[in-house]
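I hope you will forgive my troubling you with a question about protein structure. The matter concerns a single protein, recorded as an amino acid sequence and a row of backbone structure tokens. Please examine both parts with care and let me know of anything in them that strikes you as inconsistent. Here, with my thanks, is the record as I have it:
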Amino acid sequence: MPSNHVLAVLAFLLAAPLPAQSPVRARDLGIPFEGVPGPLNAITDVPGVEVGHRTLIRGDGALVKGQGPVRTGVTAILPRGRTFDPVMAAYYALNGNGEMTGVHWIDESGYVETPITITNTFSVGVVRDAVVAWMDSTRLNADPDGGLWYTYPVVAETYDVLNDILGQHVTRADAFAALNAARGGPVAEGSVGGGTGMIAHSFKAGIGTSSRLLPSGHVLGVLVQANYGGRDRFMVAGVPVGREITDLQPNYDVLARGSIIVVVATDAPLLPQQLQRLVERVPLAIGRMGGLGGNSSGDIFLAFSTGNPGAWGARPQATLAALPNDAMGPLFEATVEATEESILNAMVAARTMAGRDSLVVHALPHDRLQEALRKYGRHVDPATLPRTAPPQAGEWDAVLGRYRSGEGDNEIQLVVDEGRLFAELGPTRLRVVRLIDGRVTILGTGGLLIEVNGTTMRLLRGDTVVDELQRTAN
């Protein structure tokens, strides 16, 4: 018989939790996404941005107003973490049957001065008041000592049909918890935070996020709270998925209360007018997926830039940096791409949930989504989609320098700036990133790859060698 010691060890091993597995995300299912994501594929790829959730799930069965069932929460975004340094911003409403507080001052000043929080429709007030109190208690405000500070918190909402929404279960403590939980790193998705009780295209949805690396070396990230859209128009990569999966419908009419909140963040130095142009591209992604911005929908979007730190502060003048408008194209593309992927990440992460009065909303079935993509020839091997490897200190040192082709027609210089590798092609500077499969690609060139072996650089498109260059002495 096993000894007592062996039995104790076995009991410990059986009781110990299994290692956590990485959650499945939309990119893992073979959806043919465009663009190159950051290492986290999240809004937190934008340096300094932090996200926190407070999720409230209590009770089952029949609705008892004020008691439950509860399916709600709060999501908080801190644009510069725990640093008080307002960011330039702009907002846009595709359809305004919803709420985002503080937008008049964004229009007037061009800045967001507070955390951005998202919750349910009837909890906007308590979260707004909590943000003021939290900023005061943490001294994250413009006048932590004098008591003369004022601000207008940005709080957005969507309507969670699964929740006892009239019970107003979100408290000041819950808002504090979401704000205190805000961190960089991976972001929980699906039925979490403000997205706990939300539905999209008649499937369970909630919070989703994604990011894109830009040729300029900057990052753009998106976070959505998705609660919008009908089933029959639901599209994924041009495939009418909603018409391929016609069952698994909610057992309650949820379509009249759809909304979506989208927050776009970037470290590219953009002025408020440029952020306005950027945020107005968000509806293109929603339209690609079958959203129409109906009469009862609150489709409200916010974009902010963490560029120009310190620009808000009181002083005689501020010197600002800004990308030229001619450089906005990749930002527009990244906004559409990351918004679309964020919505799908929310739906892929969410699980079937029962809420008030036993309303059941089903998860988007991963296998049937893949079947629909295959049927229309749109499914791809997930391994072929680009995923960025986190940079390692000094990894580029051996390849830096100037490279010329034999005829001197092509010249590329590889340089490092703030830990990021760039390829300088004449007056153009483009970001170079390493993918997790070992490939190295130049962003903004349509997938041009580079391979450096000793002093030789090969330019490839797929498996075809486009040019071969040699490193020079200067």
In short: The radius of gyration is 24 Å.
